[in-house]
Amino acid sequence: MTIPQAATVRPYRPEDRAAVFRIAADTAFFGEPIEAYFEDRHLFCDAFYSYYTDLEPENGWVACAEGRVIGFIVGSTDTKAYQRRLMRHILPPMVLRFLRGAYHPGPQAWRYLRALAAAAVHREFPHADLDRYPAHLHINLEAGWRGYGLGRRLMEAFIQRLKSMNVPGVHLHTTSMNRAACGLYRSCGFDLLDSRVTRIWAHLIREPIENRCYGLTLTCER
Ligand SMILES: CC(C)(COP(=O)(O)OP(=O)(O)OC[C@H]1O[C@@H](n2cnc3c(N)ncnc32)[C@H](O)[C@@H]1OP(=O)(O)O)[C@@H](O)C(=O)NCCC(=O)NCCS
User: Fold this and answer.
1) What whole-number distance in Å separates Cα of residue 53 and Cα of residue 108?
2) 143 lines ligand 1 (CB under 6 A)
3) Distance CA 58, CA 75 (A)
């Protein structure tokens, strides 16, 4: 398909942060706005996206059209380091903000957090070997800009960066409900590494949903 308006893909800049957060929240419920299951988009973005924009901005790209950001890919080259730095640099200030009343999770958010905890206990999260696939990513486009090849262009920019850094592999987590995403990952050469049926969404969606983990082995440039 051809893009209706010229769109570009360029490296992430600090001034893109608010647009990345907006798109992350607008697409968090299988491509739809997060308010379907979580009332506080600031809490969600601080927890799940501020690491990438604030601590690994050099590994982000944005898609732009009509003079604004309409999509992004962000990620980490080293998931073990990401986990350590998240605990050290992102979570403590978030706890302080929470205690000061800056976040407003409602009943849906608490329900979601309880469902996440239950899913962890019941081993509903698929596994990736972080030695083989140390990098990970998140990719999202605004609703009106999907299906025009921009997801592939963002993915190519991110993968090129990983190859230039000799990163041996990349993985990502998604679900069977993210059908375009699963199609993109397969068409970019990712393999399905692991999948587990989950009950996280059972109160909102009737059909059974799988958590999926895809991985791609990278051949380095040198
Ligand atoms: C997933 C997403 C980033 C893909 O980007 P995109 O620009 O729509 O995808 P592209 O146009 O680059 O398509 C690339 C490939 O993905 C696959 N694909 C795209 N849309 C698809 C769809 N609706 N169903 C199945 N496969 C699809 C195709 O294999 C396609 O290759 P082809 O054009 O050669 O057939 C985008 O659709 C999106 O943001 N979706 C909502 C949010 C989301 O699910 N994010 C991922 C969370 S894990």
Assistant:
1) 26
2) no
3) 9
Q: What's the CA-to-centroid distance between 140 and ligand 1, angstroms?
A: 9
Closest ligand 1 atom to residue 174 Cα is 48
The label of the residue with tokens 């988009």 reads 41
How many angstroms is it from 141 CA to the middle of ligand 1? 9
Q: Domain 7-217's class? A: alpha beta
Q: What are the pLDDT digits (tens) for 152-196? A: 999 999 999 999 999 999 999 999 999 999 999 999 999 999 999
DSSP code string of 131-189: TTS-EEEEEEE-GGGTTSSHHHHHHHHHHHHHHHTT--EEEEEEETT-HHHHHHHHHTT
DSSP character at residue 94: H
pTM: 0.96
Least Cα distance to 4 among 119, 147, 112 occurs for 147
Question: Bridge-partner residues for 140, per DSSP?
Answer: 72
Tell me which residue has tokens 């090849």: 149
User: What percent of the chain shows pLDDT beyond 70?
Assistant: 96
Give residue 219's pLDDT.
84
State if residue 32 touches ligand 1 by the CB under 6 angstroms criterion.
no
pLDDT digits (tens, 9 = 90+) for 99-123: 999 999 999 999 999 999 999 999 9
What pLDDT was estimated at residue 2?
55
The alpha carbon of 173 and the centre of ligand 1 are apart by a number of angstroms equal to 15
CB of 178 closer than 6 angstroms to any ligand 1 atom: yes
Q: Whose CA is nearest to atom 12 of ligand 1?
A: 149
